[in-house]
Structure to design on (156 residues):
């Protein structure tokens, strides 16, 4: 092949050195298990010996070690704070409201405002009950009468 048709310059170096372009999957799996610490006893010693003596195993070990170091240096990306709301809005717009029901008052008005309104209503109700002469909202129209029972009231 010519240099124009070959896109990977490292593959040319591997061909010139007599090494295959790709490492066998079984070798990669064994070296990966070795690096993970999943191998014990004789299997671990066997893989360590192959890494020390065989160029293909040594190259696989170097590549996997390099890949692991690159991956360990990466940080996990976090979603922005408004990501969930943005996704919900997008779904709501595209689905014409089929997946989400009509928004209730609690969804449109902040919870703190609803709580303050409810507490103010309870305070007004408590004041009305406290200021009532009967301690009730019922009006006692016959309270001024001193008559009790069915007997007429005698005047002195």
């Amino acid at each position: 092949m010519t240099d124009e048709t070959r896109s990977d310059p490292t593959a040319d170096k591997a061909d010139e050195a007599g090494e295959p372009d790709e490492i066998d999957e079984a070798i990669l799996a064994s070296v990966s298990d070795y690096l993970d610490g999943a191998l014990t006893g004789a299997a671990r010693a066997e893989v360590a010996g192959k890494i020390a003596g065989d160029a293909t195993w040594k190259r696989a070990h170097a590549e996997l070690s390099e890949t692991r170091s690159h991956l360990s240096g990466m940080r996990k990306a976090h979603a922005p704070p408004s990501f969930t709301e943005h996704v919900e809005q997008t779904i709501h717009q595209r689905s014409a409201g089929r997946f989400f029901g009509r928004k209730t008052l609690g969804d449109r008005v902040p919870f703190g405002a609803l709580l303050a309104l409810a507490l103010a209503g309870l305070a007004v109700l408590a004041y009305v009950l406290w200021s009532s002469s009967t301690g009730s909202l019922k009006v006692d129209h016959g309270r001024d009468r001193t008559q009790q029972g069915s007997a007429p009231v005698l005047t002195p």
Summary: The chain is about 60% helix and 0% strand.
